[in-house]
């Protein structure tokens, strides 16, 4: 069965070539889909160049910066359409180590969704300022407390879905972005009775490029968890 690693990019010229090579190098069954939002730094063109000479590289171009959540949804649709058996979420900036892909594939034999967890059995984050680590950690605690998610890391973005798991979700109803996109996906998967498994990963700060983290992402997450809970109580999720 083939695996598609979906990597959304916005201004990742310093990372895109290396992350594609790394994701392809760890397993014979991996292919990569770059979902680029017309990055001004030429990330999309660099990915196109690699796709020309390598049939395992695919590129989707979108008109402008439309957010991480919708980039993943479009990537998932592509993966389902083309028949991939395993579908990954992974960042382009090497915060997620592509060398872990085989461990995800192994774990996916016994789970519907495998979640790379920074907070299971301790805390493993390298080179983040304490402020950011605290924000991420307590965002996870907050989301878990309110939604009842049975996960230590509710906002992590390194994941592997089995095809059948994604097919069970109504992707057209997912509208959130950033942190909240991850929370919403996890919540919907748990609601559908899918088996979620956390495996420990080490998360490192981005290798190159500038951070796209902003306050909007935090406020969205604060609101989305309540929205999910209310929808769930009303039975409209
Ligand atoms: N296609 C697309 N990709 C995006 C968008 N925003 C972020 N990304 C990509 O999504 C991945 C995760 O975003 P990051 O900016 O690394 O988010 P983060 O890890 O919370 O924060 P930093 O690493 O500090 O920037 C990276 O590969 C980004 O290039 C977007 O609007 N569209
Ligand atoms: Mg990052």
Plain-language structure description:
It is a single chain. The chain is α/β, with parallel strands linked by helices. The protein contains eight helices and nine strands. The chain has a seven-stranded mixed β-sheet with strand order 3-2-1-4-7-5-8, sandwiched between helices. The radius of gyration is 17 Å and the shape is globular. The mean pLDDT is about 95. Bound molecules: guanosine-5'-triphosphate and magnesium ion (MG).
Strand and helix layout:
Blueprint: E1 3-9, H1 16-25, E2 30-36, H2 43-53, E3 57-61, H3 68-81, E4 86-89, H4 101-107, E5 113-117, E6 125-126, H5 130-147, E7 159-162, H6 163-168, H7 178-191, E8 196-200, E9 203-204, H8 215-234
Parallel strand pairs: 1-2, 1-4, 2-3, 5-8, 6-9
Antiparallel strand pairs: 4-7, 5-7
Bound molecules: guanosine-5'-triphosphate and magnesium ion.
Magnesium ion (MG) is lined by residues 91, 93, 95, 206.
Low-confidence segments: none
The first-to-last residue Cα distance is 31 Å
Kindly report the CATH topology.
Spore Coat Polysaccharide Biosynthesis Protein SpsA, Chain A
Based on the structure given, which CATH architecture is correct?
Alpha-Beta Complex
Strand content is: 15-25%
Radius of gyration, Cα only, in angstroms? 17 Å
| Number of helical segments with 4 or more residues | 8
| Largest sheet strand order | 3-2-1-4-7-5-8
Classify the oligomer. Answer: single chain
Q: How can the largest sheet be summarized?
A: 7 strands, mixed
CATH homologous superfamily annotation? Spore Coat Polysaccharide Biosynthesis Protein SpsA, Chain A
Computed structural class = alpha/beta
- List how many beta strands DSSP finds: 9
Along the chain, the helix and strand elements come as EHEHEHEHEEHEHHEEH
Query: Bound small molecules, which ones?
Result: guanosine-5'-triphosphate, magnesium ion
Question: Mean of residue pLDDT?
Answer: 95
- Binned, the helix content reads 40-55%
Overall morphology: globular
């Amino acid at each position: 069965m083939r695996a598609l690693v979906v990597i959304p990019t916005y201004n990742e010229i310093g990372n895109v070539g290396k992350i594609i090579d790394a994701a392809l190098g760890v397993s014979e069954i991996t292919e990569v889909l770059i979902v680029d939002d017309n990055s001004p730094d030429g990330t999309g063109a660099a990915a196109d160049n690699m796709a020309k000479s390598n049939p395992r590289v695919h590129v989707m171009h979108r008109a402008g910066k439309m957010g991480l959540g919708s980039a993943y949804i479009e990537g998932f649709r592509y993966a389902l359409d083309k028949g991939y058996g395993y579908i990954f979420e992974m960042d382009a900036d090497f915060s997620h180590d592509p060398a872990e892909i085989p461990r995800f594939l192994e774990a996916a034999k016994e789970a519907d969704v495998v979640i790379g967890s920074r907070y299971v059995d301790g805390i493993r984050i390298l080179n983040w300022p304490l402020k950011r680590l605290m924000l991420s950690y307590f965002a996870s605690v907050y989301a878990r407390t309110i939604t009842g998610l049975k996960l230590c890391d509710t906002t992590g973005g390194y994941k592997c879905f089995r095809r059948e798991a994604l097919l069970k979700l109504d992707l057209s109803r997912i509208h959130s972005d950033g942190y909240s996109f991850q929370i919403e996906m996890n919540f919907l998967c748990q609601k559908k009775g899918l088996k979620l498994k956390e495996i420990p990963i080490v998360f490192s700060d981005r290798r190159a490029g500038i951070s796209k983290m902003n306050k909007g992402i935090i406020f969205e997450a604060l609101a989305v968890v309540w929205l999910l809970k209310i929808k769930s109580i009303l039975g409209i999720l």
